[in-house]
Every structure is written in structure tokens, then in C-alpha cells.
Amino acid sequence: MTTARQHAADAARAAAALPARARHGRPARIAARAAVAAAVAAAAAIWAAGTPAAPAVELAAALWLPLTAYYEMAPPDFSGRS
Q: What's this model's pTM, rounded to 2 decimal places?
């Protein structure tokens, strides 16, 4: 049985591996996706300011980035090396 502490350690280890996975994956595509997400969020903040749509579009852009960038990252290293 795993404990909450072990789950937290696993999550911290996975988060620490994200920069290396991005660097060894397709960093240009991840950067392009980040630029698109930032542009969409900025456009929503400018053009839809004061409406309920602005935060919704900004949140959608913020969620779209990690959900789609996952496929551009290198597979995790299961050998125990960093």
C-alpha cells in the first residue's frame, strides 16, 4: 500500500523531470504552443474585456497548453538517471 507521502514524492520527482523531458523532446513546438496560448489569452483579455468570456477563454488557453504539450515531450526516463 502506498502512502500519501510516497505519492507526494512521486509527484515531486515527476515535476522535477519535466524540464529535462521538454528539453529532450520538441522544445521548439512547446515554445510555439506556449506563444499561441499566451497570444490567445492576451487577445481575450483585450477584446473581450469585461465580459464573462474573457476569463473563460484565458482558462481554456491555460488548460490547452499542458494538455497538448504532453505529446511533444520526451518519454520519461525509467532507468533512475536524471
A: 0.67
